[in-house]
């Protein structure tokens, strides 16, 4: 069963579309560089590689040189089966590249409990115990989902090294998780492999799971500056506008960062009540910020006026998930 969305979130996305009409004349973004990877999670029904409603593990999709092999299911069967591909994808106003349809998510949860994690192996020279002494960027559309603000575990994006063990091999998390140490607000958490310590940096926007649960689709850009002669720096940007790299929302510097796999749509839900699933879509990897920066419109977190609300009143009758069916 595909998840559903509240009319508030649909209404808010309609407001974003209204904002886009005004902002489109003010912003322009182009990218001439070559991407290292693109995956729109397009389903087979739309000519893509992913089977609607099937576990993500074992499926192959996307194109480029950054990843190798299919999606790899977690070592734990209960985690592996819950991450699935869906035919309905994410979108938002102001994208310079149209979303292709499809996404990674899990089924809606009415009560406790479920877990999900599936990874993609990074190809040489990016993955493994090597340091490529280079910089790469990753961007993706994400709906962080929603749930009990007192017990959220919506990590959404992780990186591991050598396996799936959280205690010793999970070297990066992005999301919200009181259980895993991210805290109650959106944060970036990175392991320094030289000291085996975790460094946690909340986003400057200061948003928690309740706010994220109503906001719908965001664009996240991550920057990995990997050096053989100095510290490695990992940064994250929430809803950046344009192709000029702005100040990051969060940034962590470590002596050495190691990863051989990227885990998408990571969500551990132990809430006693309904828990809205996260969605992950439109993943890009490149060597320049402009390779992956596909947004031209500033994010509007709440309805700006009753006039805008009036333009979107028809959305109140819609109960189906997604910002735009693509």
TrEMBL record:
<dbReference type="InterPro" id="IPR013424">
    <property type="entry name" value="Ice-binding_C"/>
</dbReference>
<protein>
    <recommendedName>
        <fullName>Ice-binding protein C-terminal domain-containing protein</fullName>
    </recommendedName>
</protein>
<feature type="domain" description="Ice-binding protein C-terminal">
    <location>
        <begin position="300"/>
        <end position="322"/>
    </location>
</feature>
<dbReference type="Pfam" id="PF07589">
    <property type="entry name" value="PEP-CTERM"/>
</dbReference>
<keyword id="KW-0732">Signal</keyword>
<feature type="signal peptide">
    <location>
        <begin position="1"/>
        <end position="33"/>
    </location>
</feature>
